[in-house]
Specification:
By secondary structure, this protein is mainly beta. It contains no helices and five strands.
Amino acid sequence: MNTKETDDRALPVALQGRVPCKVKGKIKKGDMIVVSDDPGVGTADSDPKLGSVIGKALENYDSQEVGIIEVVVGRL
């Protein structure tokens, strides 16, 4: 689909599976990860709104700096 050969702006997109995700804030394994105020970065939410969920955290994280954890995307 989107390859570097056709578009220099192409980015990989995960539809299902275990994938790395940029996050910030306090996240516990099992938390739902949703979009944050920072573009391209997720954060935990205990009551996510429909359509805002990126995936479910598979690791703990606790920092206001942007880091990367593994999340499961798709069937939760």
